[in-house]
Each structure stands twice: as C-alpha cells, then as structure tokens.
Amino acid sequence: MVNLFARTPADNFRVMPYNLRLFAMLGLWGDRRKLYRLYALLLLAYVAIIFPKPVRITDRHPFESIVRSVSELIFAALCYLTIIILAIKSEPFRAVIRKMEQALELFRDKQDQCSQLIIEVNANIHRFSLGYAKLNLLYVLLFNVIPPIYNYPRYFLQWRMPEDNRTVEFMLPLMQDLYGLDVHHNIVHYTISWVAITPFCVFCALILWFKGALFMLIRYNTLLYQLVNRLLQQYDRESAGGLLAQKHRRLQQIVQLHYRAIECTKLLDSILSLILLIQCVGCLLMLCLMLFYITRNHSLNVINIAVLLMSIFIEMMCFSYLGNQLTEENANISHSAFNCRWYDEPIVIRKYFLRIILQAHRKATITAGKFYNVNIVTFAQLIKTSYTYYMIMKEMF
C-alpha cells in the first residue's frame, strides 16, 4: 500500500498516478479483465447491505426508521451507479486522462512558470487525495466503530438494572433486517450483522474515494486553462519586437493547448453528466430525508445519518466549487488575450487571437444531465430546494 502512494519525479507531470494504481486493481484502469473483481464486490455488498433493508412501514419499523432506511438506500445507490457508470464510460475516461497527460508532457523539460505550476498543482492534488482518503477512513470509524462501542457496554451492564428495564435496543450502523436476525436485541445476531456489513462499508468508503478522482479530473482540466492563461501572459511580456515566425509558433502552441483543454472538458462532461444528474437528485432527496430524521430523533442513531449527510454535502460542494473554477479559468483566457494588444499585430497574428477569444467565450462547463451547469450558484439552489422540501415534509408528517 505504501508503494501505491510513493512519489517519483516522473509523477509530477502525470494525471493522478496514485489513484490510477488503485483503479487498476479493480479493472477501471489498465487490464479490463479485472473488472470481475469490482462486479463481485458490488454483488456481495448488495446481498449484505441493500437487499435486507426495510422499505415499508410496520410496527417494527415506524415512519422515521423507513425515512432513515430510504436515505441509506439512496446513498448506496449513488455509490453503485457512479462506479458502474465509470466502468461503462471507461473509454472516454481513459481518453481524457491520455489527452491531459499529453498536454502536461509538453512542459516536462521546461523550467518556467508553467512547469512550476504543474508541479505545484500535482502536489496539491496528491495532498488532497491523501486527505480525502483519511476523511473517508474517518467516516468508516464513525459509522462502524461508534455503534459497538456504545452497544456492548450497555448490553453487559444491563444486569445491574431492574428486571423490568433490562431490554436493550442496539444502535445500528445501518437500518436493516438481516435475513431474519434479531439485530435490534440479540447480541449474537447483532455481532454477526456488524461483522458482515463492516467490510462492505469499507468498500463503500473506497468507492467514495474513487469518486474523489472525479474532482481531481476537473482540477486537472482547470489546470490546462490556467496554463493557457500563463502562456498568454508570457507572450504579452516577451513578444514585444519578436520575430513574426516566433510569434506564429508560440500562438499556434497556445491555440492547440486551449483546444485540447476544451476537448477534455467535453469528454469530462460526457463522463460526468449522468453521474452528476443522479448525484444532484440523490443529494436533494437525501438532504431532505436526513434533515427530517435528525430533527425527529434525538438518539445516537443520528450520528450515522450525520456522517452520510456530511459525505454527500462535501461531495456536491467539491463538484460545484471545481465546476465553477473551471468555467472562470476559461473565461479568464479571454481577458488575458485582450491584454496582449493583439489589435496592433499583423492580421495573421490577429486571427490566432480571435480564435482564442471566440473559444473562450464558449462557456466551458460541467453539467448535470445537460439540464444545468454545476457551479456554486446551482449548489446554493440545491440546498435551498432541499430545505424547502424538508419544511413541507415536516408540516405533512
């Protein structure tokens, strides 16, 4: 595992090399014949976590518990659908990484501001990846360790209580009926359930970490637009009095890099469009249901729901922030091009600048199902809509 995250100088100009090493273990990168490992784990997780979940109101499962069960079901569905769509979209996924690496490779042997920016951003992405892995590990600890720490002492200390108060109802990591086991009151059944679902909760956390790779791809795409901006700024500082052939060559490289960045955005949108549509709808429903459950329950069961709520909130915030940054960096290219005083250049140079400006005016965005752009504004609207639905649900129930 240490070797998977070992850094080498060559990795400074590659796209998420550490994540791709783990992707390769499940066949999402490299040898696709290993995809059977992913599908086998998804099937086992379905049998252990999703299938046993209660989805109808009974005396044993009142309305609040069904709300929690449906929230957890939506969360699991988001994890499942994301990883399945990535497996289906493996060709555009591989293509966008290859295009990004080809663009970064152009700066490998240079010692300038652009190469320094690439190294700096790659180091930041690596730190984010490790930090996001630690955050998901924290989710697992909160989700799976707190319930038994709370339940076992209560169970073994119940004999000190009066006989009428000896019934203990366990705090469950997940709301489920595990194939007829009495996981609410029987300590043996509870232990079997906890041991059975813990590995698959770890697997779900791994999927969440894989989803973090999608944040990083958006950030790498933004980096390409930042490089175009840096190259235009260098052109403005260094091209005064330069030879026409030299200007022609430099602008040709800038246009090609900008075009490659736009191609990467289109590929990313084709990969993320359906994922983000499902993510937005799921986030809307989950925020509404989880807020309802948390406000109606004051037991420690809200800890696990709060973990899921924090996870989905952070995911959507990252997608929205990075989508917003991507759009802004492409828009900044137009301003950088205007500041190069291109209107004083010969017509052959002006044609290049007009092409850059026109491309920059075509909004570079990541969309949710082609319906709306994913950015900070739409994220705020999503939170506002979720809260509105929660208030309606609160009044109705």
UniProtKB/TrEMBL annotation:
Keywords: Cell membrane, Membrane, Olfaction, Receptor, Sensory transduction, Transducer, Transmembrane, Transmembrane helix
GO molecular function, one term: odorant binding
Membrane spanning stretches: 35-53, 73-90, 135-152, 187-210, 271-294, 300-322
Membrane topology designation: Multi-pass membrane protein
A Pfam family recorded for this sequence: 7tm_6
Listed GO CC annotations: plasma membrane
GO terms (BP aspect): detection of chemical stimulus involved in sensory perception of smell; signal transduction
Subcellular location: Cell membrane
Major site of localization recorded for this protein: membrane
Protein name: AGAP006666-PA
Protein species of origin: Anopheles gambiae
Gene that this polypeptide is encoded by: GPROR48
